[in-house]
Automatic annotation (TrEMBL):
Homohexamer. It comes from Acidiplasma cupricumulans. This is Inorganic pyrophosphatase. Pfam families: Pyrophosphatase (PF00719). Its EC number is 3.6.1.1. Its cofactor is Mg(2+).
Length: 179
């Protein structure tokens, strides 16, 4: 593969990965629009509108200059008090992992908090997120593709050390592929 002008290749993985990463917001909290970083060009493109009536319960994006098991940049769920918009680059701290399988493939989501949000920045583990928000997150990802006849599985949570290892591995995989 070859690098191009995509945010995936132009934005670094973070100021101090894996402890502090950049997340390119693809989908703001409260929307059904599924946006993605363009892989072939700079910017964000509309992938689809969710088939369900659900809305994303958090900011959803990707950590640039990473390559994960699904052949995409590693996914990041960012908990913060205010929604942003597609294309925003924010500083985030990994505090856990939502373990998932999507259509038979591992598709774990890194759980992060926005470092520039005074409400969330001091959390150190996903276990500090209110239990109901974690249940909403699990429910969303377990069911949001049902009307597309696609199967997703939520297989629990892992802590911040697991998240940091996944991010390190995804950065190394990116370097092997693109450098």
């Amino acid at each position: 593969m070859e690098k191009n002008g995509s945010y995936w290749h132009q934005v670094p993985a973070g100021p101090n990965p894996p402890d502090e990463v950049y997340v390119v917001v693809e989908i703001p909290k409260g929307t059904r629009n599924k946006y993605e970083m363009g892989k072939e060009f700079p910017g964000i493109k509309l992938d689809r509108i969710l088939y369900s009536s659900y809305v994303y319960p958090m900011e959803y994006g990707a950590i640039p200059q990473t390559y994960y098991t699904d052949k995409d940049p590693i996914d990041a769920l960012v908990f913060m008090s205010q929604p942003t918009f597609p294309g925003v680059i924010l500083r985030a701290k990994p505090i856990g992992v939502l373990k998932m399988v999507d259509s038979g493939d591992i598709d774990n989501k890194m759980v992060c908090v926005c470092l520039d949000d005074p409400v969330y920045k001091d959390l150190k583990s996903y276990t500090e997120i209110p239990e109901h928000i974690l249940k909403e997150t699990e429910n969303f990802f377990a069911t949001y593709k049902a009307l597309q006849n696609k199967k997703t599985e939520v297989n629990g949570w892992e802590g911040p050390e697991f998240a940091k290892k996944e991010i390190k591995d995804a950065i190394e995989a990116y370097k092997k592929l693109f450098e």
